């Protein structure tokens, strides 16, 4: 019951809807307390604490605006937040954001990054709700380098002389 209105749950047949997600906390570093800001566990705890006083939904993300405050956020709103986050990340990195970025874009990026960093196709498909690995191979594999390779290439490569 929220503001005098009964709320009801909607059951879905989406395979990953009831999946339990486990997040690992980033160990706190005394020498760099700002790393705590990157910890998803820490961020979710703060978010849940701050939304608790007006929360009217069991859904993780709730509205914070006046009229819908505390009610479940729509899929469209989450989609807008994802696109805004992608654009902000590109801007922060000094890179142009690809044209036509959509929230669904993050699914391919996340799956490709996981694959590039050694996560099995079985685990990726289970997390994404894909029944067969062919779905990833045909539609989502962006052929990314592992993060460690990009970091090593950037930090260990000799400086460019400007000559080709």
TrEMBL record:
Signal peptide: none annotated. The keyword Kinase does not apply. Keywords: DNA recombination. PANTHER family: CORE-BINDING (CB) DOMAIN-CONTAINING PROTEIN, PHAGE_INTEGRASE DOMAIN-CONTAINING PROTEIN. This is Tyr recombinase domain-containing protein. It comes from Labeo rohita.
């Amino acid at each position: 019951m929220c503001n005098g209105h009964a709320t009801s749950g909607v059951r879905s047949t989406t395979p990953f809807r009831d999946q339990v997600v486990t997040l690992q906390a980033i160990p706190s570093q005394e020498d760099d307390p700002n790393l705590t800001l990157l910890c998803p566990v820490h961020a979710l705890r703060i978010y849940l604490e701050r939304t608790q006083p007006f929360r009217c939904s069991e859904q993780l993300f709730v509205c914070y605006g006046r009229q819908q405050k505390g009610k479940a956020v729509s899929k469209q709103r989450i989609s807008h937040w994802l696109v805004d986050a992608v654009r902000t990340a590109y801007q922060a990195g000094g890179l142009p954001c690809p044209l036509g970025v959509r929230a669904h874009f993050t699914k391919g990026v996340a799956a490709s990054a996981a694959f590039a960093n050694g996560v099995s196709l079985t685990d990726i498909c289970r997390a994404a709700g894909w029944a067969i690995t062919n779905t990833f191979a045909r539609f989502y594999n962006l052929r990314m380098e592992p993060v460690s390779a990009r970091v090593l290439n950037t930090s260990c490569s000799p400086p460019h002389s400007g000559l080709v």
